[in-house]
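Please, structure for the following, as tokens.
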Amino acid sequence: MDQVVACPRGHRYRSTVLSLESRTTCPRCDLADLICLAYGDCQVPPRGCRLLTFKSEPITDFGVLSEVLHLVGRYNRFNPTTVLSELESLFPRLSGVEIGREGSPVIYARVPYWTHQAVRWCETGMGTPLTNQHRHEIAESFLGAMKRALADELSDDGTTCRAWWD
């Protein structure tokens, strides 16, 4: 049975509970815990651990993205406030953003193939395919935004864009 539950921090999420004894975890809290673990050496106070190579599941909620980027905090030229400011208007056009660490902060942005794959899709049914030109424009917008956010490396493989800060 699918139901809405709340975690101790007040985050509401859908869960399928098989029995009354079953436990479920909050995906938002799990993600926050993962980010804190991965960037444990950067936390105040330091948590004594770190994951130098990891990537989150795609994030499709800007509030969650904001929360986890602020958990990463400033890291050399990576500034979460600047990154969020650059991503805010572009985020709804993407199909998701993955946060990670490749020694230093990295962000992957997924470019949708169909309109219904974009975060902002709010209609029902199947959308329409995006032209290659439109997809290229979305990718270029992301790369430009991350360049303004002082990313050290930028790339686009046609499906996913990558921004990395040293």
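The first strand starts at residue 2 and ends at 6. Residues 50-164 form one domain.
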